[in-house]
Each structure stands twice: as C-alpha cells, then as structure tokens.
C-alpha cells in the first residue's frame, strides 16, 4: 500500500504559510545544510560543445578532462538551442506547477489503486515514516524513445509544454551525444566508444522539479544528496535562483553558480562511473532551498533497459581490475528508486562494487 505522505504535495504545504516546515521535512541536526562555499566564478568549468566536436581542438578537450577530474560536472555553451526555447520551457514548466492541484493531479504519479509509479506529477516515493521528505514536487516523464512516451502523463496545460519539451529533448540529446563522444576521445578511443554500449534507443527521462519558497531553508533539503541514475545528465537550471551544491573531494559543499543565459549543465552519472571502471566518477550533489521558488528541468540518459551495464572491456586490465559487477541496465534503473528513497548510491545499495585486493587486505588486517 502506498504511504499516506505520498499524497501531500510540498507546494500545498508551502502555501499554508507555516513559520517552519512540518516535521516530515525537517532533517536531523547532523544532516542540516550549512551554507555552501561559493564556487569561484572563474574556476567553475565551462565547455563549448561545438568546439568539443572538433577532434583537433586540444584546448577544449583539456578543459573537459579537467572538469571531469575535479568536479564531475560542467556548464555547457555552444549547444545550438535558442534562448527562446530555454526560456520558453522554463516558463511552461513554472506555469504547470502554478496550476490548481486538481489539474496537475490529472497526471499523478499514483495509479487509481493508489500505488506509486515513477512517471507523472507528485512527490518522490515515500517508503517509511522515518524517511525525511525533500522540499520539492516533480513531474517525471519518459521522453525517449518516442514510442515509449506515455502521453497520459504529459501536461496539456500550458498547451505549449509538450512541443517545447519535444524540442528541448532533441537539442539536449545532441549535447549528451557530443559530450559522450568527447569523453571517449579524452581516453584515446573512437567517438562511438561509449555510445555503442548504450544502444540505438537511449532511454531518456525528463524531470521538472519545483522547489516552493521555504520558510526555513536551514532545516530541509530541496533534494537530498544523491548521484544521478544516468550515464550523463543534462540540466536546465533556474535562470535566477541557485541552490544546487556539489560535494568536493575534500568534503566541502560548493554552490553551483546561477549559470549564464543560454548555458546548460552536464553531470556525470553512476552508470558512466560503472562503464568507465571509475575513470569518471559521478559527483554527489544536493539542492538547498531559499525564500524564493525555483524550477529546474533535468534529462537523464540511460542505456537501453536490456543492455548489459558493466565496465567496458578496454578499461579493464591487470593494473585496473573491474571495479563493478555486471548487471542489466534495467536492474540498475529499478534499484535506483529503492536506493534514492534510502538516500544511498545505487552502486552501494545493489552491492555491485567488486572487492579490490587492497581493500580485501585491509579488511583482513582489520579482522
Ligand atoms: O534541481 C537541481 O538543481 C538539480 C536536480 C537534480 O540533481 C536531479 O534531479 O537529479
Ligand atoms: Fe541529480
């Protein structure tokens, strides 16, 4: 049976003008977000995907490599999508969340029997009374392959939204492909190296997330710390309001700045970490709230569900044994929802890390 908290939209809670969020959203003291450190504007990585497409452009390739090594995410320019499209889909997304709840619930992420399923409008899955809820509502849709789109979940209001989302999907796919091609080239492989493992019909999911104004941003997460269920993720952030933070290697949370007009963000996901045998790592990130509303649109790129997900042969050797066990992409994707509700990485939740000899030795010593 679905958890009773599943039916409560955060936007309605926020509209109640309470002085503080209800206890369901309040984090344990140790988890509460202290202010992130601002990313120095100059050192926040930005790459031009048009330049990445030129194999001779070693300077841009070096920027990409450095961004992947340090942040695991970077801003993107040169993607060719007009600013009107980006502004248009942002506006349409906000308009959708501003509709009356009854209208939005026509696309609810609960079946008539009350069961949760990922697609549609609502909050993320609630499994237990203990789970601290995130301060956001979302609309989650399959966008690719087109034959898998389930139109009953697609908003009909505002009427412009489906077409804008379709256009954004096309533009964003080019970004994801160019990035994956360039990532392959940074390792000395042909540009099809990663793409060939995803299949013809790369599975793509869109997530619009709406973070209502929060009366006490110090007590809640907009979105809890997580790594993405993707090979790569393309994000269209809010044009005015920040909130996304990334965990750096030294344990410090750093603010991702509000990006320049027309810029997108690309984030490495856990499936790339597996495929690349941890050459590329998926950064942990989270969202903090503020007194202002915020909306983002995120596209997750995943292998075809029946594909095998495993470290690519060429990146496994005596020096670097396989660090992850192989599994079906669908098994990983399904495992994500369980892991996310628990606040765990899918790789850890599904226990697919191979014990490395060094680790085993440490464990033996410790025993
Ligand atoms: O809203 C954001 O800034 C980030 C959203 C995100 O990380 C996600 O949906 O996985
Ligand atoms: Fe994310």
Automatic annotation (TrEMBL):
Stretches assigned to the Fe2OG dioxygenase domain: 202-303
Organism for this UniProt entry: Digitaria exilis
Entry similarity comment: Belongs to the iron/ascorbate-dependent oxidoreductase family.
Assigned keywords, A-Z: Iron, Metal-binding, Oxidoreductase
Record protein name field: Fe2OG dioxygenase domain-containing protein
Gene Ontology molecular function: metal ion binding; oxidoreductase activity
InterPro entries reported in the protein's UniProt record: DIOX_N (IPR026992), IPNS-like_FE2OG_OXY (IPR044861), IPNS-like_sf (IPR027443), Oxoglu/Fe-dep_dioxygenase_dom (IPR005123), Plant_2OG-oxidoreductases (IPR050295)
Highest taxon in the source lineage: Eukaryota
